[in-house]
């Protein structure tokens, strides 16, 4: 059995290895019609969580899927967050805000799995990237 000090040490070590900053959002409602332009607009997303993170490739090949009428290959990644990152759900969106890999910054990634563990040293998410061009804010 781990002592509280050992668990705190493991959490601190994990947190020190998170070089990027991520933001997790959730769609907040249905599309609305802009009567002036005739275009559908998405409501502002709900901010769920933000803080330190690390994104690394999941050691598997991408997964093929259908998105609308298009055939897409979805790359999968594991995102590590601090142990106290709560409230994140499947189908939330994660974006790297700052990091060491400029190609990841601004890329919308969809959460497909939220990992849980007894010791809760860190929180791990599996995310998918539809490999669309990245969004630069």
What does the model show?
With 137 residues, this protein is mainly beta. The protein has a single domain (4-27, 42-129), classed as Thrombin, subunit H, CATH 2.40.10. The chain contains one helix and nine strands; from the N terminus they run αβββββββββ. Strands 1-4-6-9-8-7 form a six-stranded antiparallel beta barrel. β5 and β6 (70-82) form a beta hairpin. The longest helix is centred in the N-terminal third of the chain and has 12 residues, at 4-15. The mean pLDDT is 87.
Features:
137 residues, mainly beta, Thrombin, subunit H, six-stranded antiparallel barrel, two-stranded antiparallel ribbon, 1 helix, 9 strands, elongated
Number of strands: 9
The largest β sheet comes out as: 6 strands, antiparallel, barrel
Class from helix and strand fractions:
mainly beta
Extract low-pLDDT stretches: none
Give the number of helices.
1
**CATH fold name:** Thrombin, subunit H
Question: In whole angstroms, how far apart are the ends?
Answer: 46 Å
Summarize the model shown.
The protein has 137 residues and is mainly beta.
């Amino acid at each position: 059995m781990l002592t509280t000090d050992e668990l705190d040490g493991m959490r601190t070590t994990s947190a020190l290895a998170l070089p990027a900053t991520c933001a997790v959002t959730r769609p907040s409602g249905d599309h609305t019609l802009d009567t002036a332009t005739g275009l559908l607009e998405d409501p502002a997303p709900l901010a769920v969580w933000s803080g330190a993170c690390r994104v690394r490739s999941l050691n598997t090949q991408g997964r093929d899927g259908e998105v609308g009428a298009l055939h897409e290959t979805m790359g999968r990644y594991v995102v590590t967050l601090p142990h106290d990152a709560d409230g994140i759900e499947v189908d939330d969106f994660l974006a790297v805000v700052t990091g060491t890999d400029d190609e990841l910054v601004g890329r919308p990634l969809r959460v497909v799995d939220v990992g849980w563990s007894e010791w809760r040293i860190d929180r791990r998410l599996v995310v998918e990237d539809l490999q669309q061009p990245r969004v630069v804010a």
